[in-house]
Each structure stands twice: as structure tokens, then as C-alpha cells.
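Can't paste images in this forum, so I'm doing it all in text. The chain is below; anyone willing to post the predicted C-alpha cells underneath?
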Amino acid sequence: MEIDQDKLHEFMGKMVGELGAAMNAALILIGEKLGLYKAMAGAGPISSEELAKKTGTDERYVREWLSAQAAGGIVTYDAASKKFTLPNEQAMALAVEDSPVYMPGAFHIVSAVIKDEPKLTEAFRTGDGVGWDEHDASLFLGTEKFFRPNYAANLVSAWIPALGAVEAKLKEGVRVADVGCGHGASTILMAQAYPKSQFVGFDYHGPSIGFARRAAARAGVKNVSFEVASAQDFHGEPYDFVTFFDCLHDMGDPVGAARHVREKMQPGGSWMIVEPFAHDALEKNLNPVGRVFYAASTVICTPASRAQEVGLCLGAQAGEARMRKVVTDAGFTNFRRATETPFNLVYEARA
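Text version of the structure:
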């Protein structure tokens, strides 16, 4: 092989960055779990001794952790005072749980898929699936932690209003099915915002439904319930509004799921489908956001679909054209992109 040394050096610099980011994933989890970021938020310059005392942790470990955070640009370091500072912008992402940019949940997901790597490697060999329920439990916790801030920032304020008459109906009182609800963050947010409507969250993963029930009880929300059911057998009287949050692309038979939605909807009902942002063409998704979504799709979404009937494997970067085909193949005649964010596409389907 002929080697361009400049290109090699450039790529090795990229790989060092990759290695540092991968190692730091564990440190972010440590910082979240021990409250290190929260203790630094708004505290100004702080020494390792002060942070350790404030958090009840060992100073020597904290000093090394702070040094790594400074090397990565997460905290700043003042050599004269030997103190570290967490800037407000970084605090928004790492210490403020109700911030729309709170990120530690994503690193719980990373933790889960690293632990699950042997299963995923074997799936590459065999072509078998790895079901959602087969993953490490950090995936379920991380998904709720990662997606909830985005839903809290956009669902009630922007996404539902983009659906035309749906918001007014929710305020008046209708029946809503939230399918693939996981830990119930989206269901509970909607139930709190529209107390006259009745919400049922469905998920095939029993432990997640148990978590959602406990979360609703803690929140004191009375107009919501949670049931174990898949997208193709969720039950109850016909619904006026059905929601799928970041899950249709994970399903083995999304067309079958869409047909069931159509069967379970009242005439004039609306289906909101929230999906990861993606262009239709691969080359337009070759960017930092697409990189994250393709990686997650490789280790979570595609294996989940392959583990189910049909195994269509849409993937997390399916794009609007493929989603439109799924929905229209199921018999829906109206499909549109209602709104979008840099990370999500929000579709509306009507029969």
C-alpha cells in the first residue's frame, strides 16, 4: 500500500479524538451518578478538594476526573488557582435535568450497547435480531433520560400545535393511545397538559410499563394508564389520537403496525409519528447528527426490527419517502410532514 503520511497523521489525530471521547463516556456517567456536574453548576471556580468534600467522594479520584474533563474542554482550568469551573453552557447539557439539551441519558445508552457488544457481534454473523428486551437495562433508563428533555421542550409547545385541530380536541377531551411509550415520559407529559383527555400508554416491554406506572403515580397524574401490548395488538375503544415517538422504524412490521393504527382510530382521527431527522439520500445524512443516528440504528434499531416478524429494518435514518410508503401502504390517504427540529421529523397521518 502507498501511504500519504499527511493523511495518515490527520486520520490518527481523528482516532485519538475518538478514543478520548469513548473513554470519557464512562466519566460522564460517573459525573452524573455522583452529582459532580450538579455540584459544580453555578459554583464558580472549585478545587478538587472542595468538590470532593461537597459530593462526599475521594479527592484523588475527583482530581483525575477533573483533569480529564479539562483536557476534553468540558470544564476550564485556572493554573494559578488550581481550580476548575463548569461553564453555564456545559452545565445546561450536563447538570440541569429539565434542560432541553440534557445529555447524560445518551451515555447510559452508550453504556448499554457496549455491554451488549458480544450479542451484537454474533447478530452480525448470524443475521439474527437482538430484541429491545434483550439489551442491558441501562438502555431503558438512558432512552427515557435522553428523549424526555426533547419531548418536554417541543411536544406540547410545538409538535401538537402543528397538527391543526388536534390541540383543540385534546383540550376538550378525547381518547389517546401512545404506542411504544417505554417509560412513559411522552404519555405523562401529554396527560399533564391535557387533563380532560384520557391517555393509554402501550409497550411490549413489561418492565418499562411497570416503570411508567410508578412514574405516573409519583407525578400524581390521574388521566393516564399503561398496558403491556405491542404496536400490532394494542387494544381498547377506538382512539381519536394515536402517537408513536421514535419507535416506528424499530418495528419488524411497521406496515402491519400502521394498519392496526388505522383500525383502532376513530373517523377523523389523527396519527402523530415522531422520527429521527433524516434526509432520504444517504449522502445527505453524512454529518454529526446522522453519524449518531446511524450508529444507534446499527446497534439498537436494526437488531430490534430483525428480532420481530417481517424484520423490515427501516433503520433510524429511514427518511420521509420510506415513512410515507409505510403509512400509505397501510391504507392511510393523507400523510404530511407537520414540523421538524434539527433532531426530529414530525409526521401526521389521517385515514
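The chain has a mean pLDDT of 97. The longest helix spans residues 5-33.
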